[in-house]
Amino acid sequence: MKLTIIGFWGGYPKQNSASSGYLLAHEDFQLLVDCGSGVLSKLQNILKPEDLDAVILSHYHPDHIADIGVLQHARLIQGFLGKNVPTLPIYGHQFNRKEFAKLTYKKITKGLKYDPNQVLSVGPFQISFLKTDHPVPCYAMRIEGGGKVLVYTADTSFKEEFISFSHGADVLLCECSLYGHQNGKSVGHMNSFDAGRLARSAACGQLILTHLPHYGNIADLKTEASRKFTGIIKLADEFLSISL
Q1: Which of 105, 117, 171, 218 is the most exposed place for a label (fewest CB within 10 A)?
Q2: Within the chain, where are the H helices?
Q3: Predicted confidence (pLDDT) per residue in 58-75, tens digit
């Protein structure tokens, strides 16, 4: 399994960057996890939109879904240009019916609901879910493939259930919207200490901090997380690639 960071900013994309979007590749299958603002533009540096095999969404905040519409248009136009572009499955929860309905567009994309209580098979991946603590329904994902495990927290404040959900993950792709002195409980986000604590308690192989803030010195997030977790810690960065 190979992870490539496409976008990693929280809330909105920083100049010339993108908000949440993560590409997972395994056995020639390309899965995009979240598709925030700027993701389609950045994705095209490494993969054509028509070469995606599936998309899965954690929730429907714009910084995680803003580029779904332009992804649909990209595949539509490539079809007009004569390419054989199959219908793209986009997996999402159905607890916001208005946004879920937008995932289906002509024969270009098809919205498919996932049941958070069941393991979902997408290509070579097995995906299980955990409801996060966030202002809207949002689901973390434990993605398994080729004997490796990646856990993506999506957007959430810290909750104890994450420890067992993330246990033994090779990579913990953990949101880190706040610095250590900030309390994210009321806004549904984690800080750097929360991320480090989770990685340590769940015995993860390495910690990747993502969904980063637009202010302060983001290098401090890594320093703060290292007070709780002594393993490998990296800040998400554009096109950072990790082979599991």
Answers
A1: 117
A2: 39-43, 62-65, 68-80, 97-101, 161-166, 192-201, 219-225
A3: 999 999 999 999 999 999
Per-residue pLDDT tens over the stretch 31-46: 999 999 999 999 999 9
Boundaries of every domain in the chain: 2-243
Reduced to 3 states (helix: H, G, I; strand: E, B; else coil), residue 188 is coil
d(CA 207, CA 204): 7
Helix, coil or strand: residue 162: helix
Mean pLDDT score of the chain, rounded to an integer? 97
Residue partners of 235: CB distance under 8 A and separation at least 6 = 208, 209, 212, 218, 219, 221, 222
| Percent of residues, the chain, with pLDDT higher than 90 | 99
Q: Taken in order 165, 169, 173, 174, is the CA torsion positive or negative?
A: positive
Could you identify the residue written with the tokens 């540096």? 45
CATH topology of domain 2-243: Metallo-beta-lactamase; Chain A (3.60.15)
Go through the chain and tell me how many residues it has: 244
Cβ–Cβ < 8 Å for 196, 229: yes
Question: CB-hemisphere CA count at 13 Å for 129?
Answer: 23
> Would you tell me how many other CB atoms lie within 10 Å of the CB of residue 216?
12
DSSP for residue 178: B
